[in-house]
Amino acid sequence: MTNLAVTSQSIAVDHIRIVCRKAFDQVRAALAAELPELDAQIIPALASGDRTTIEDYEKRGPKLFIFLERNHGALLKSTAEKRNAVQYEIGNPITAATMTCHQLGASLYAPLRVALYEMENGEAVFEYDRPSSLFGQFHDERVRQVGLYLDRELEAVLLRAAS
Predict the structure, then answer these.
(1) What is the pLDDT of residues 24-44, one digit of tens each?
(2) d(C-alpha 142, C-alpha 60), whole Å
(3) CA–CA separation, 158 vs 156, rounded Å?
(4) Helix, strand or coil for residue 99?
(5) Exposed e or buried b for every residue in 29-57, given b needs 16+ CB within 10 A?
């Protein structure tokens, strides 16, 4: 029989909520205008160690991408409640590699998850967990610094989309 080690750790997470005061569709369109979809060429460049392409993306590319968009509102149709709700995976694979090369467990939170949903009054809301609070559990200053960078970048893009 294999010897296993299972551990558990409680962590404090800062949960952020941004009430947009604008309609869901407006905020969703603004976020799409702010963030491009993930460029599929980045992954092969990372996988092959193509430093030239990676450095070009770091200098000239967007800081964040939309990796994936899940329509959670569609799931609510089975409950007869019609609501707009989207879950995004947002991040940058180059930034993720910068963390995970030091702490592979950081891959649990990269890319980041952001929810955008419509309240009953029609206003949109963003919710997400502050990246530095998620990545802080690894007690690695290199990872923490990337988390703080992501705090600033994610908040800035969401506030622009919300206003």
Answers:
(1) 999 999 999 999 999 988 999
(2) 23
(3) 6
(4) helix
(5) ebbeeebeebeeebeebbeeeeeebbeeb
